[in-house]
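User: tokens in, sequence out, please.
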């Protein structure tokens, strides 16, 4: 089942169950996917849809941090719920050990030896994880390995 089909089915269920928060997030995701499809002028592939989901998740995580810094607990809870809903549509996340193994493999592939090679490693490793790991976590691990 494609992501759009799954979203449509879940949207119907949320409507029937009168889950306003879940319905709102699903509609937002569908709208983002539709806007991206219109922008590209073609239906989205699974990778393109995943990129949109990843972007939406990152926006919410950034908002969560800003609301925490501002002391807005009411908004923190709301955004945390939205993050949980968006994450339910993401592929299963890699464990930290799996990410480290992938990074070690990539470091040896590109021949990275110093901090100057961080960009090369990141460029090679990001397509391999495709939304299955957070970019900031990957960056932190790569930096620690190349220090």
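Assistant: Sequence out:
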């Amino acid at each position: 089942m494609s992501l759009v089909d799954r979203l449509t089915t879940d949207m119907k269920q949320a409507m029937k169950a009168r889950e306003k928060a879940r319905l709102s997030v699903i509609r937002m995701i569908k709208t983002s996917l539709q806007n991206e499809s219109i922008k590209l002028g073609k239906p989205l592939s699974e990778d393109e849809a995943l990129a949109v989901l990843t972007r939406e998740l990152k926006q919410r995580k950034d908002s969560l941090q800003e609301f925490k810094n501002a002391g807005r607990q009411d908004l923190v809870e709301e955004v945390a719920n939205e993050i949980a809903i968006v994450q339910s549509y993401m592929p299963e996340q890699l464990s930290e050990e799996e990410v480290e193994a992938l990074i070690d493999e990539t470091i040896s592939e590109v021949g990275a030896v110093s901090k100057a090679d961080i960009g090369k490693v990141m460029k090679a490793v990001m397509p391999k994880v495709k939304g299955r790991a957070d970019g900031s976590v990957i960056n932190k691990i790569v930096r620690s390995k190349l220090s």
